[in-house]
């Protein structure tokens, strides 16, 4: 197995494979990127503004330089004339934004439309659908910006049933999407999947959604960086926020190189949110590890055998779902669950579990060389939905967190919504994701990982055996 990594810059510290946001105070300072396909093939990193080297005063400080933080900076400048200062612990988009599967879907959080209706009623669910649809339109527009060249593969999303027993649920969801939301999803048979999309051996049928796009994760992030800096934002790398406190109407963000005093703060740290950074975000997320691999380029014979006609995002119906697709350069990428703790992340059993998932779908690929392998933390909220929220009305502090693995697309809209709130123009944002905080795990907080261990076993039984 051949694994590629980004060449270390002289000032970078080695990547820490055992980093765990539940225990480590910060993600590090100036550490190298995870050895992802995205970083390995993105080309040179765009310039940033380097680390904080002295105390400074700013109007708006954004913690985290991933998709959400950079989108917030872009929209603060473009729509409200505010030039933000972005603080990043390591390199730009070091966390979720360069470790995901590069799949943009018309979703936010982990819940389906039918679950929105059950939780909030039809009227709010329809408004949520409109919000997510607007978010996809915004994402498509950003991808067309001249600064952003991220190899987009537009054309929809296929949600593939891995067992016959889940087909009725997919059929029900298609009816809900069409009849309640006017969204033209449709069912696709196993034969149609094999003929028109891909010869996935597990597929029993699928739900096709017209909106879905594959992108190059790091090229998207680096494009956001170029656009944000063009609009006047400052992006300071190797500047982790050690703590963030408020007094006298100002926020004090302490970094190794100096304290940033800000009138408003936006937190966009996703699965890399340190418990000690601020009391308003402490233990409001459950960080979950996800593994991903990318194969060597397929041969012509392998492509023909797999009939990989579709270059769109593919997802299966397991609770701990597999996300996979054919990349523009002819490689297959697949990701799914990983270890529970950071110290166990490098255990080869998790890589082998993912590879077995690849082989079940595409038996002809058994034993294929893997060129890239990595893992990263996903920000899962307690109720499986994100929040863009001001948790304390007395403080100008906002966060956009909790995408649950569906943040590639909606993070653009979330950053824009957070910018509206900072600018005092969030009055019309009345959906639950804008008006309520991330729920706490309460008394269960110390036992979350024990519960995760048990739930993973239950999910396996339910998805594969029962």
Architecture of the domain at 152-212 and 287-379, CATH level 2?
A: 2-Layer Sandwich
Portion in strands: 15-25%
Cα gyration radius (Å): 21 Å
CATH topology of the domain at 152-212 and 287-379: D-Amino Acid Oxidase, Chain A, domain 2
Number of helices: 12
Class from secondary-structure proportions: alpha+beta
Oligomeric state of the chains present here? single chain
Mean pLDDT: 96
- By CATH, the superfamily of the domain at 152-212 and 287-379 comes out as D-Amino Acid Oxidase, subunit A, domain 2
Give the CATH class of the domain at 152-212 and 287-379: Alpha Beta
Instruction: Please give the alpha-carbon distance between the first and last residues.
Output: 35 Å
| Count of beta strands | 19
The main sheet comes to: 8 strands, mixed
Coarse shape: globular
GO molecular function: oxidoreductase activity
InterPro entries: FAD-dep_OxRdtase, FAD/NAD-bd_sf
Protein name: FAD-dependent oxidoreductase
Domain FAD dependent oxidoreductase: 59-421
Structure description:
Keywords: Oxidoreductase. Pfam families: DAO. Helix content is 31%, strand content 21%. Helix 2 (67-80) runs parallel beside helix 7 (217-230). The protein has helices at residues 37-41, 67-80, 113-120, 122-143, 167-181, 190-197, 217-230, 300-306, 348-361, 407-422, 432-435, 448-465, and strands at residues 56-63, 85-87, 103-105, 153-154, 157-160, 186-189, 205-209, 212-214, 234-236, 243-247, 250-255, 258-267, 285-295, 314-316, 323-326, 332-337, 370-381, 387-389, 397-401. Strands 1, 2, 9, 10, 11, 12, 18 and 19 form an eight-stranded mixed sheet that branches. An eight-stranded mixed sheet has the order 6-7-5-14-15-16-13-17. The protein has twelve helices and 19 strands. The protein has a domain at 152-212 and 287-379: D-Amino Acid Oxidase, subunit A, domain 2 (D-Amino Acid Oxidase, Chain A, domain 2), CATH 3.30.9.10. Strand 1 (56-63), helix 2 (67-80) and strand 2 form a beta-alpha-beta unit. With 466 residues, it is α+β, with helices and mostly antiparallel strands.
């Amino acid at each position: 197995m051949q694994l590629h990594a980004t060449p270390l810059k002289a000032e970078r510290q080695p990547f820490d494979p055992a980093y765990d946001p539940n225990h480590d105070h910060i993600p590090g300072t100036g550490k190298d990127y995870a050895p992802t396909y995205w970083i390995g093939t993105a080309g040179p990193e765009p310039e940033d503004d380097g680390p904080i080297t002295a105390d400074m005063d700013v109007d708006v400080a954004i913690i985290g330089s991933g998709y959400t933080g950079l989108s917030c900076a872009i929209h603060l400048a473009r729509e409200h004339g505010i030039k933000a200062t972005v603080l990043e612990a390591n390199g730009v988009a070091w966390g979720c934004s360069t470790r995901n599967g590069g799949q943009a879907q018309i979703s936010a959080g982990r819940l389906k439309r039918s679950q929105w209706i059950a939780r909030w009623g039809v009227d709010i669910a329809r408004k949520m659908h409109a919000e997510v649809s607007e978010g996809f339109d915004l994402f498509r527009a950003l991808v067309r910006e001249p600064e952003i060249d991220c190899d987009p593969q537009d054309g929809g999303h296929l949600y593939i049933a891995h067992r016959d027993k889940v087909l009725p649920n997919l059929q029900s969801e298609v009816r809900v999407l069409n009849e309640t939301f006017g969204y033209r999803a449709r069912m696709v048979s196993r034969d149609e999947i094999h003929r028109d999309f891909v010869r996935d051996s597990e597929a029993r049928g699928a739900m096709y959604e017209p909106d879905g796009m594959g992108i190059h994760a790091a090229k998207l992030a680096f494009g956001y960086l170029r656009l944000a800096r063009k609009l006047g934002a400052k992006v300071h790398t190797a500047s982790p926020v050690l703590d963030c406190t408020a007094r006298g109407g100002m926020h004090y963000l302490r970094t190794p190189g100096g304290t940033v005093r800000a009138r408003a703060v936006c937190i966009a740290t996703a699965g890399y949110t340190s418990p000690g950074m601020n009391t308003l975000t402490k233990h409001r997320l459950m960080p979950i590890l996800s593994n991903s691999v990318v194969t060597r380029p397929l041969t012509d014979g392998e492509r023909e055998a797999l009939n990989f006609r579709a270059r769109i995002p593919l997802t299966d119906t397991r609770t701990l779902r597999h996300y996979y697709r054919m990349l523009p350069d002819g490689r297959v990428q697949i990701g799914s669950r990983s270890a529970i703790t950071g110290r166990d992340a490098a255990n080869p059993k998790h890589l082998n579990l993912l590879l077995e998932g690849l082989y079940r779908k595409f038996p002809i690929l058994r034993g294929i060389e893997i060129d890239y392998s990595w893992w990263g933390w996903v920000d899962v909220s307690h109720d499986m939905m994100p929040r863009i929220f001001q948790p304390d009305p007395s403080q100008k502090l906002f966060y956009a967190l909790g995408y649950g693995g569906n943040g590639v697309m909606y993070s653009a809209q979330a950053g824009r919504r957070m910018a509206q709130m900072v600018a005092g123009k969030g009055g019309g944002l009345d959906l639950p994701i804008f008006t309520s905080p991330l729920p706490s795990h309460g008394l269960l907080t110390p036992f979350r990982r024990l519960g995760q261990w048990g739930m993973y076993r239950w999910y396996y039984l339910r998805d594969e055996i029962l």
